[in-house]
Amino acid sequence: MDYLLWSLPLIGILATLLLFRTTALVAGTVGLALAVPVSVFWAPKTLGIDEAVNACTIGAWVGISVGAVLLGGLFFRRAVYDSLPAPQELESPPATDKRRTAFRACFLLGPFAESATGYGVGQLVIAPVLGRLGLKPTEVAVLGLFSQILVPWGALANGTIVGAQFAGVQSSNLGLHSAIISLPLLLAWLALFWRIAAAAGIKGSSASYVSEAAYVVVLVLLLASLSYTLGPEVAGMAALGIVISVSFALTNGLTKKAVRSTLPTVLPFVCLIVVLIAVRAVPGLNALAKTFEVRPTSDAPPLYLFLHPAFWLFAIGSGLFVVRNGWRVLARNFAAVWTAGKRSLFSIIAFLAISQILSASGMAEGLADGLKALLGPAAILIVPLLGGVFGYITSASSVSNGLLMHSQVTLAGNEAGKIIWIAAIQNVAAAALTMVSPVRLALISHLAGTDERGVLRKVWPLALAPLVILSAVAGWVVLSSGSASIFHGAQIRHIVAYSR
User: How far is 250 from 440, CA to CA, in rounded Å?
Assistant: First the structure.
């Protein structure tokens, strides 16, 4: 009975979304309304009213931090495209170029931006690119979610680093194993891309299928090797940078006229990514950026204003508005962005408040422990589902890993070979399901100019693919012994050393 009560917030969210097909805001409100009383009266660590309020406050604070990126992204997009021709006024590119552009946007450019910045900024980069291919808004939104396919390396691999700490493994080793099990997942997503693109009128040839699959395989090989040698923090950007450079060099389709025509659009995005990388990766700038922090309570996570993507989205966007149109347009555009994004902001706040309550009250850990007690050794099969569900709710693999990773890897006992695989399954599952989380759906729906409920009905295969594939990997782990993993740490070091 206790487990049923603890799962009521999750049941309420899923029932509201799937059965009643309502918005994320309504689902989040229902989940929060259920989570608060359960945490106060029936949770493993029952909260006092003041503790429940504090948990909601912390969750809301994190939600504001995440939601600010949504508002900043909408503002930045308006600034970049304010004085540019509408998509219908632009010349439609040939079918071959459409296909190449769509693939590069979904599998290369969007994931590169996400690796550098996180917070769903990859969607912001590719939504306008897809919108100029003559696609319907819903098609733009669904394809825009592919920018999230490499979230384990997103935001400089923040989620993977957190997961490695809680699993007690090296981050380089976790990055390697995450890349290995990402190969079948990326190929499954590629097959779904082919299906979605064909339905949208962007059909491919046999040659395009072969070349796109080859790019994905090469990308994974680079991710695996660079994650282990350089670390996962820079592996995503490095691997994608190499593949993007090779792709453009092989096609060599850019003319001087094309460069001049696209530079006003591309330059703001380049500036955004460069600034965000600099304030994170350059020690002096990083230390300076951390001098100004904001937090509502002493136990709330700090927000470093000059490290936050929303600050630079608004700053660079404001600069563009001023240069192109003057100061007087700022207030009008701020108001328009608030009107467009406020419902999504409130839904993000609701979901992250739920996440904080589940964590503070012990309900998240209690549900995981209950499933393990029920299933015994077969509980490893639940790792993808648990990791994915909490990645979906929180829209952050780092949060899912923080809540569940330690509990998940205890299923392996002392078998090191199983520990690293379970950690990788948890890490990839949590990251994969953030793709279809209410936060990501809200952002891409607004960027595409469509209703998120219509997008939700079309994206379930993107969520089903990782659950099926990672469950198969989990089944292999159940059947194997610790020595069955040829990717054990000592063996990996021997293989790498030998290959040199």
Answer: 33
CA separation for the pair 296, 53 (Å, rounded): 13
Separation of alpha carbons 299 and 212, rounded Å:
47
For 107-143, b/e burial (b = at least 16 CB within 10 A) is: bbbbbbbbbbbbbbbbbbbbbbbbbbbbbebbbbbbb
DSSP class of 16: I
Q: Residues 227-281: pLDDT tens digits?
A: 998 788 878 888 888 898 788 777 755 555 555 655 666 678 778 778 877 887 7
Burial category of 298 from C-beta neighbours within 10 Å (exposed 0-12, middle 13-18, buried 19 and up):
exposed
CB atoms within 10 A of CB 378: 14
Domain extent listing, the chain: 2-499
In contact, 273 and 116? CB cutoff 8 Å: yes
Q: Which of 456, 440, 445 is nearest to 393 (CA)?
A: 440
Distance of alpha carbon 169 from its chain centroid, rounded?
22
Question: 242 in helix, strand or coil?
Answer: helix
| Residue where the block lists tokens 């000059």 | 306
C-alpha distances in Å from residue 45, one per residue of 2, 36, 39, 40, 346:
12, 13, 8, 9, 27
Work out the angle between the directed axes of helices 137-144 and 438-448 (0-180°, nearest 10): 140
Read off the pLDDT of each residue in 420-430 and give the average, rounded to a whole number. 95
Residues 6+ apart with CB under 8 A from 20: none
Residue with more model confidence, 94 or 376: 376
Question: Are the beta carbons of 51 and 336 closer than 8 angstroms?
Answer: no
Mean pLDDT of the chain: 82
304 φ, ψ (degrees, to nearest 5) = -90, 105
d(CA 422, CA 434): 19
The residues, any chain, with a CB within 8 Å of residue 480's CB and separated by 6 or more, are: 417, 418
Alpha carbon distance 119, 126 (integer Å): 14
Residue 124 has pLDDT above 50, yes or no: yes
* CB-CB contact of 144 with 113 (8 Å): no
- Whole-angstrom distance, CA of residue 400 vs CA of residue 497: 34
Whole-number pLDDT of residue 480: 79
Query: How far, in Å, CA of 105 to CA of 96, rounded?
Result: 14
* Residues contacting residue 201 through CB under 8 Å, at least 6 positions apart: 134, 135
Is residue 177 very low, low, confident or very high in pLDDT (cuts 50, 70, 90)? very high
102 and 133 in contact (C-beta within 8 Å)? yes
Distance CA(348)–CA(157), nearest Å, equals 22
Cα 53 to chain centroid distance, Å, stands at 28
Residue 20: Cβ-neighbour burial (10 angstroms; 0-12, 13-18, 19+): exposed
Q: How many residues does the chain have?
A: 500
